[in-house]
Amino acid sequence: MAVLAYSLGKREINHHFTIKNAKLISLVVVILLLVFHTALRYYGGGDSCERLLSTGRYLGENVWQPYGCMMHKYKSIEAKTCLAEKRVAFVGDSRIRQLFYAFIKIIDPEQRGDGNKVDFLWYPEANNSMKERLISWTHVSINWSIKLHSGSSETLQQYKVNLTAIAVHLEKLADHGEVYWVVQEPVNEQVLSENRKMITNKQLELYNDAAVDVLNSSKRNSRSRVKLLAASRQASLETITQSDDGLHLPESTRNVGAMVLMNSLCNKLLRPIDGSCCQTLPPPNLLQKLSACFFVGSAVVFLIFHVLGNNHHRRPGPPDVESLEEKKPATAAAPLGPKAPFQALCRMGIIMSYFYLCDRADVFMKEQKFYTHSTFFIPLIYIFVLGVFYNENSKETKLLNREQTDEWKGWMQLVILIYHISGASAFIPVYMHVRVLVAAYLFQTGYGHFSFFWLKGDFGLYRVCQVLFRLNFLVLVLCVVMDRPYQFYYFVPLVTFWFVVIYSTMAMWPQILQKKANGSGLWHLGVLAKLLGLLLFICIFAFSQGFFERIFSIWPISTLFELNGSIHEWWFRWKLDRFAVIHGMLFAFIYLVLQKRQVLSEGKGEALFSPKISNLLIFLSVVSFITYSIWASSCKTKAECNEMHPYISVVQMLSFILIRNIPGYARSIYSSFFAWFGKISLELFICQYHIWLAADTKGILVLIPGNPSLNIMVSTFIFVCVAHEISLITNDLAQMVIPKDSVALLKRLGAVGLLSLVVQTLFSHMQNFLS
């Protein structure tokens, strides 16, 4: 009965909630969110700079999150660069002096001057002395006014009068710099000393209201040039109980105020990628404008075709990138009509508009990541429960069959997504386990492509172009639309490089295929010799960084591998998983040979090996998992762990394969939930950069402000729908752009190469002209 209910429930869900309906819902949600955020920006009042100064919350101990934007944590060298030409003065009482010291500590942790001009001036009251100082160039304390005059109402009125007089000079100062008024933080009345008992939070609120009224009244029908710094007050509401004397703030709160000030002063100048507060985004460059025109033109052509005649076409089933094997339809698919490419480009243009709005336009908000064990492990448990719920019988029971490899890629990709959004890279044990998952994807790359070439022997140009197009189409479009170098999306260059290496290894003379190897076992030695040569090639590059850099710094390939003018990132990524692909190729070779010799038992319900060998291998696999986890937990630094990773990651991958495939019942089922995500794993990995994460993966996209849980659910829903649609678009365009006829394909490749050269040359000349 339980099984029947489970089956019926799953069928009902799949019947009513199709991917097409989900995409329509996501489109409507995006439009509504766009209207909401536009209205919030222009009618809600306040930009990211005002939100930085006024509101926020603690994500965890000592981690402050401004409302709707990201706050950069400034280092000493950055602060010195920003303030090199500035004169900074703090005017006020002992609380302002604390803020002054916290600010100085950012500039110089050892509090040496080093030429930066930052002063503190003792003016505990808003009176004529302060006014005279402000007249000569121009802040104010409330606590001393309350303390000296016992909180009388007359003093409050006099304070308003004095502040009104001072406000004029503050405004004049703001004409030539930036002036901040620090809103007074609350006190802990219970621990105040006797001579401070008259300072109450009620009194402080009255004085704060007075200051806000006076400074706001000086707007003169325009935005006030004196900025109110209220973020430290917001932070102190949670931390004032930690104050030793009830008046002075704990260090964590002082640091919040100082860092908020630093972000307000420096973000617009230094433009840190993880500091979105107070930053105005640059206008689109020439390539971005041209890409917009291209997509708009495609949409216009599509509409013209649509009006003239509705040409239906059937989309071919998307092949797997690793093998490019398509599921044959029951009937032959009708040829794609002339409007099909423009329809695909129109859909792609709409999606790219969403990418741009999320991460290049100041429309949606962004927030910082903050790691806690619960933010990583709770979603992890949740998705694995879903994965178990959606399980089905496999069509094949072979080792690493298609459904199983899709499942493997799917759950790995979901773990990596959770890892990225939770900021779990800060926790070394999780970081090391995720490194194994990345290596496992490269392992599958080696396994899948080797198997295809070994069994099919198809080394034609059509297949090569199909694989390269499917791997790189989305990334190349994003490079233009998002103005990012190719190497920024590091995983695609990595997989592309290794595909070319695998192809070259297998295609070079002598081409050794299974058909040829069946005739003589000596050909197996030839394959091993090729793999040994590839291993030597890898080792030469790995142990000679200078040689590696010289090779990949040669134009024009340097443009593919450089990031910020250096190939260091490419060297790091390549070296980290340098053996994963050859491990996959070797495993595929051994498996296919054993399969051909019928050494393995791959029937339904049968264990791969004899009971004794199966039990021993499973036991060793479990022990290796536990041993690796213990080792990863004992690592002190990432650098230390990364040195060992290339050599030991293969043990984890083999252990997983054995545990997953030795028992016959385990090979007979798979998770359709994970397999579905596995089919779009590459799109998920790339799309997360801009429409799930934000600020080029440094932060989190905020579509629903004020509700992190709901925001994650909504943004994830849209993100998955977009990734799936891009997968379909890529499949459509691959069928249309890459013809099977070799002559036509060569002509198109020549045209694309020539066009790329012309565009690159024109763009370089224009950049030189503008500079």
From TrEMBL:
NXPE C-terminal domain boundaries: 64-144
Cell compartment(s), UniProt: Membrane
One term of GO molecular function: N-acetylneuraminate 9-O-acetyltransferase activity
Membrane topology: Multi-pass membrane protein
Transmembrane spans: 24-43, 370-390, 410-431, 461-481, 488-509, 521-544, 578-594, 615-632, 674-692, 712-733, 745-763
GO cellular component assignments: Golgi membrane
Taxonomic superkingdom: Eukaryota
GO biological process, one term: carbohydrate metabolic process
Domain annotation Cas1p 10 TM acyl transferase: ranges: 271-749
Keywords, ordered alphabetically: Glycoprotein, Membrane, Transferase, Transmembrane, Transmembrane helix
Family: Belongs to the PC-esterase family. CASD1 subfamily.
Protein name per Swiss-Prot or TrEMBL: CAS1 domain containing 1
Upper lineage: Eukaryota, Metazoa, Chordata, Craniata, Vertebrata
